[in-house]
């Protein structure tokens, strides 16, 4: 195990603990700011995610966005590969996917231009600490090579951290939306 791997593991453990406290104390309407931001991008193909464990829930904002344009959720293809995004609707039939996240029963893949990204921790510069599989980093790198792609981290305020252990392959977020604020980062 490398030093960076150990440092990331320690940072993840601390961030998971902060996220659990925030999740347990959450109030209704946490996706309100996310809905406000997405309203400015109506009709643009986007993806959200199906929340697992103590992740902040984007489903109300995704449901609202789906009335105006395509909304997808990530589908893991295999370790070491980029994610693909299958069309999701609030009333769509779901099945169990990898890591406990639900995915649409029928695959209907498309490339989103906006990705609402789950995370373990974020920093004030748009850095993101994920779960360690590199799925979103590979995916954002590939999508951004084709065209501009907006990456929006969605998190609880408590998930902000200083001095995240980041690597050159980590894709930056363009924005982080929490239950109380919107942070925008310049490239």
Automatic annotation (TrEMBL):
Catalytic reactions of this protein: (6S)-5-formyl-5,6,7,8-tetrahydrofolate + ATP = (6R)-5,10-methenyltetrahydrofolate + ADP + phosphate
InterPro entries in the cross-refs: FTHF_cligase, FTHF_cligase-like_sf, NagB/RpiA_transferase-like
NCBIfam families: MTHFS_bact (TIGR02727)
This enzyme's EC code(s): 6.3.3.2
GO annotation terms (biological process): folic acid-containing compound biosynthetic process; tetrahydrofolate interconversion
Descriptive protein name: 5-formyltetrahydrofolate cyclo-ligase
Molecular-function annotations in GO: 5-formyltetrahydrofolate cyclo-ligase activity; ATP binding; metal ion binding
Pfam families: 5-FTHF_cyc-lig
Transmembrane segments: none
Family: Belongs to the 5-formyltetrahydrofolate cyclo-ligase family.
UniProt keyword annotations, A-Z: ATP-binding, Ligase, Magnesium, Metal-binding, Nucleotide-binding
Naturally occurring in which organism (per UniProt): Ruegeria atlantica
């Amino acid at each position: 195990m490398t030093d960076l791997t150990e440092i990331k593991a320690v940072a993840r453990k601390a961030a998971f603990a902060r996220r659990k406290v925030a999740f347990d104390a959450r109030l209704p309407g946490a996706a309100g700011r996310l809905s406000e931001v997405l309203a400015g991008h109506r009709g643009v193909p986007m993806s959200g995610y199906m929340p697992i464990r103590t992740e902040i829930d984007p489903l109300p904002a995704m449901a609202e966005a789906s009335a105006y344009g395509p909304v997808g959720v990530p589908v893991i293809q295999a370790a070491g590969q980029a994610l693909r995004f299958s069309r999701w609707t609030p009333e769509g039939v779901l099945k169990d996917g990898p890591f406990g996240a639900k995915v649409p029963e029928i695959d209907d893949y498309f490339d989103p231009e906006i990705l609402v990204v789950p995370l373990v921790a974020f920093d004030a510069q748009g850095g993101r600490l994920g779960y360690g599989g590199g799925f979103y980093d590979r995916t954002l790198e590939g999508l951004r090579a084709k065209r501009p792609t907006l990456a929006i981290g969605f998190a609880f305020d408590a998930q902000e951290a200083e001095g995240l252990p980041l690597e050159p392959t980590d894709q930056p977020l363009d924005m982080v939306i929490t239950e109380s604020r919107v942070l925008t980062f310049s490239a």
